[in-house]
Design brief:
This protein has about 300 residues and is mainly α. It has one domain (about 1-305): Up-down Bundle (Na+/H+ antiporter like fold), CATH 1.20.1530.20. The protein is about 80% helix and about 0% strand. It is built from twelve helices and no strands. The protein has helices at about 1-25, 35-55, 65-90, 95-105, 110-150, 155-165, 170-180, 190-210, 220-245, 250-260, 265-275, 280-305. The chain is globular, with a radius of gyration of 18 Å. The relative contact order is 0.19. The model has no long low-confidence stretch (mean pLDDT about 90).
Length: about 300
């Protein structure tokens, strides 16, 4: 019960910020044009600053990087196999299938890092940055491949590679790890500047998550609930089983299971629009998963803790 109260106390402000963002969008304040710009600003500047600072100053040798990478690769491939195995029962066309896949495989970085920092503090934040450095490239490659195969997206190998090397989160992780490994760190007051930017990342990011919820897109409730159950319940259980087999460490296990239990991210909607996926369906999946995570994420965290 003590763990539950601590976890709810940590998650309460996070979900309150998401709901505040939804309320502000509903009130049309400060205007519909603000939210896409805010998300873009957070994605390209604030969040990379947070990740770069976290990785550049961390003691990376204290963490089990190889076991973490092994769990992530196995988890993503197994969940991909599960979604494909269930495809005959989904009874959806190719574009809709890609939206289900993205709803299962992606995770919301803003919510994830906010939760991990609140529950597991600074060390957990470092592990989360490592997890993102491995997960983000793999997930993007898998999602592009699935969209190309089932939604007819015209994508080349060069286009996929270009998307990866220009992804601001991937670049920030690589630069942070490079500064750490070379011993350069964050010289000339850059640590203080990045710290100021990083402090703004999570509040603005969480507000943007709430503003992106689409209550008008809700349809096909059976498909939405089934996709959400795979993402929010089955995936963290599978992550826990893989961590039990590989044993990456207690903190690493806690962070991995937490990330597996996160709702999907708005990047899925953007990619669906670009490559021919079902945009309305993924918008509905994002909305339902984020709402259900209010209940499922505390349950998973109690189990982990």
């Amino acid at each position: 019960m003590n763990n539950l109260s601590l976890i709810l106390g940590a998650l309460g402000p996070i979900f309150a910020m998401i709901l505040l963002g939804a309320g502000l969008r509903w009130l049309k304040f400060p205007g519909d044009s603000f939210w896409p710009a805010a998300e873009r600003f957070t994605y390209f500047l604030l969040f990379p600053a947070l990740l770069m600072r976290q990785l550049a100053l961390a003691r990376l040798t204290d963490y089990a990087v190889k076991p973490v990478a092994l769990v992530i690769i196995a988890l993503l491939l197994l969940m991909t196999a599960v979604v494909y195995a269930l495809r005959p029962w989904l009874k959806v066309d190719g574009p809709a299938f890609t939206s289900v896949y993205q709803g299962v495989i992606r995770f919301n970085t803003y919510v994830g890092l906010a939760v991990v920092l609140a529950v597991f503090h600074a060390d957990g934040g470092t592990v989360a940055a490592l997890v993102m450095a491995i997960m983000i490239p793999l997930i993007n490659v898998l999602c592009v491949l699935v969209l190309t195969a089932h939604a007819g997206g015209g994508v080349t190998v060069g286009g996929v590679l270009r998307g990866l090397i220009t992804n601001p989160l991937i670049v920030a992780c690589l630069v942070g790890i490079g500064l750490n490994m070379t011993g350069i760190g964050l010289p000339l007051g850059s640590a203080a500047m990045l710290d100021i930017l990083a402090r703004a990342a999570l509040p603005l990011g969480l507000l943007a998550v709430g503003a992106g919820l689409r209550l008008d897109a809700l349809a096909r409730p059976g498909l939405l609930v089934g996709t959400s159950a795979l993402k929010l319940l089955i995936m963290p259980v599978l992550a826990g089983a893989l961590c039990w087999l590989v044993n990456p460490g207690r903190l690493e296990t806690a962070v991995l299971v937490t990330f597996a239990a996160l709702p999907s991210a708005s990047a899925a909607y953007i990619l669906a629009r670009q490559l021919g996926g079902d945009g309305a369906l993924i918008a509905a999946i994002l909305t339902v998963e984020t709402a259900l995570a209010l209940v499922t994420l505390p349950m998973v965290l109690v189990w982990v803790v």
